[in-house]
Predict the structure of DUF742 domain-containing protein.
Amino acid sequence: MVDDDAGRLIRPYTVCNGRTRPSGHFDLMTLVMATGSRPQSYLGPDHTQVLGLCGGPVSVAELAAQIRLPAAVTKVLLSDLADCGAISARAPVHVPLGPEPTDRELLEAVLDGLRKRL
């Protein structure tokens, strides 16, 4: 429940019944997406809101920002959804940047560009 002037009226950890640890591993960059499978039982309005935001791959950090809850609470909500098969989660894919990802010339060019802007 959110009141625009007062902010959130329910303490964040009441959303997840005081739990502070998710049952699965989620970091801020973990990508989650709805599977299309609905939970067998009703989990709560915050779970429903999170599930509605998972139409495409979205990171845990983005979800936490969108629902205005701490990342720890968001991870607990996501683990509940993953446990009932409503979402899938995966680590982000790292794309190689080429033969030398730490090319010194490229890094120096970026640094020079940043210095010119500041």
Remarks:
- The first strand starts at residue 2 and ends at 3.
- The mean pLDDT is 82.
- Strands lie at 2-3, 7-8, 31-34, 58-59, 87-90.
- Residues 2-93 form a domain with the Arc Repressor Mutant, subunit A fold (CATH 1.10.10).
